[in-house]
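INFO  loader      accepted 1 record
INFO  loader      residues=396
INFO  predictor   begin
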Amino acid sequence: MVYRVKVNPLMIKKAREEIGLSFYQLPQILKDAKEWEEGTKQPTWKDLRNLAKKYKRPPVFYLMSEPLKEEGEDIIEFRSPEKIEEYSYELNLEIRRVKYRRNIFLNLNTEMGNILPDFSRFVFKNKSSSKKPNYKEINYKDLGKHIRNFLEIPFETQKNWLKNDNDKPKYDHSMFLYQWKERLADLGVLVFETEKVSKSEMSGMSLYFDLCPIILLNGKDSYNRRIFTLIHELSHLVMRESTICDVDIHNSNETFCNKVAAEVLVPKDTLKNNIIFYNNGNINYSGLSNIYGVSQQVIAYRLANIGKIGQNEVKQKINEITEKNQIKEERQAQRNKKSNGGGMSKPAKKKKYEGQPYTRFILNAYENNLISSSRFMRYLDIPVDKIDKLHDVLYG
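INFO  predictor   done
INFO  writer      dumping tokens
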């Protein structure tokens, strides 16, 4: 006899819609999903387990009378009009994952009696009496200075990030991304990266909470792009906003946060005193890019901001750099097609997509016997026998 479970059809429908799937996208084992949602047929426990795998919701979720209320504000859409549509399956899954990781992080810290930093103290206070800052009342330079002040990263420290632990320069600027992430972790921000979300769908996302706000970066973007997006999304957080962004789009709010990010990453007062020239007298954009850990495009914009170059030179330089980057990307794409490599290891993926601070926290909790092996595997989705390799990736 087949035992069927009395589920709530609305919860099954909600789980499917949240993750952005239509019926035709479901595998054969979920062929009865439409009937389950209509209430004309009840699933078995095996069906619920298959649903759980595909929808990333536990079987008990489908038995609930209504979903639990989730903390946080609605996400503000700042992407270009052609991208404003239902989130892809991959993006929906990533959003659910980052919220899940945040809950783990909060609950574990509560169990340990740790006091987490309150991010709300960094929210920018505008001139009005309203709780939420207003873009129209704020100068981007003031907000940039505010962020730079609470980050407390001296310029002398920043320019030394080009070198790794072996004192050798890493011109891909990966060390800059690592250091900015570490600093935000100190301030209570959880930073994660997507693995499978298309670059064309989003550049970044911010989810505001007083405790442990989240920044989600597109893991397919270059280091420079992710660095800029990181600070761009931080700008939204200090405005107490939850947003999804494409930092290339030109609307007033996104342009404002782009200016803030440039102000934070390349402070005006330092740039004036650190312009590098070639022997022929031309500005060394590459050298400046490596001092600040940003793209040459950002350097061009900042040089224009301080009056060192004109708008025509900015456009010319941007076009030149864009063409070079496109050629690099095309060549890299060809190399990737020819490569037979197995890709990143699972420990390396944990470091990249879940972030070193979060992954270290879970690993340290396990190594200090604060969580069991089963909880460790559930929280990080990695076998215990990979711990040595994970340790090497994080600390090696």
